[in-house]
Amino acid sequence: MLYRLSPNKLEKLIFPLKDYSKQEIREIALKIGLEIHNKKDSQGICFAKEGYKEFLKENLKDEIVRGNYVDKDGNILGEHEGYQFYTIGQRRGLGINLSKPIFITEIRPLTNEIVLGEFSELFIDKVELMNSKFSVEYEKLENLELLARPRFSSTGFYGKLIKDKNKIYFKYNEENAHNAKGQHIVFFYDGFVVGGGEIK
Fold first, then answer.
1. Are 117 and 164 within one domain?
2. Which stretches make up the tRNA-specific 2-thiouridylase MnmA-like central domain (predicted)?
3. Higher pLDDT, 106 or 45
4. Which of 17, 28, 121, 187 has its CA 20 to 30 A from that of 90?
């Protein structure tokens, strides 16, 4: 989320651990007797100790309602526990067996439907951005080849920014399956963060 900060705010940030690798920090923690030195890396919600499902149940309560799994044509395939528990691209933990690998390709909150499909249906070559923010003038970036990282674990994909009327898109050089609505995508040029936005 650092891409959303202005240059004058970034200048004032201090990262005391910036010169250390994660492994070096673990070794320091071991030397000074911290029990968490060998704790597994977490990709979940750190403040939801009981897991994200229990956290959502406690905070959303009656908003969570069971709904239907459907295919892209609207045919009902089964029932899900509530769309809030799922994410685009998810394969495990769906509670449904269709005798072939299936993935979540779309989530429809208004109808409480989750669309299932094959992995190939997740591949796209363009995303629309919303709430975008750039550290340099957009016009200076438009014709540059940028590295886009739609997930923190992604090594990135190259492409270019495109403006069509008042909308901004990122056009990948090749299709990929790493995009999901609401997810943040960050752009790099020559190793530096130049901006980002949310995938619409």
1. no
2. 53-117
3. 106
4. 187
Give which of 110, 117, 111, 22 is closest to 73, Cα–Cα: 117
Dihedral sign computed on CA atoms, order 188, 192, 195, 199: positive
Domain that holds residue 192: 123-199
Give the other-Cβ count within 10 Å of 129's Cβ. 22
How many angstroms from the chain centroid is the CA of residue 39? 24
pLDDT at 43: 64
Q: Which two tokens stand for residue 127?
A: 């995303």
Cα 82 to Cα 59, 67, 68, 79, 143: the distances in Å are 14, 6, 9, 9, 42
The four Cα atoms 41, 42, 43, 47 give a dihedral, to 10 degrees, of -160
Calpha distance 178→7 (Å, rounded)? 28
Is residue 24 included in any domain, yes or no? no
What is the end-to-end Cα distance of the chain in Å, rounded?
A: 17
Model confidence at 122: pLDDT above 70: yes
Q: Are residues 101 and 135 in the same domain?
A: no
Proportion of the chain in helix, strand, coil states, percent, rounded to 5: 20, 35, 45
Q: How many domains does the chain have?
A: 2
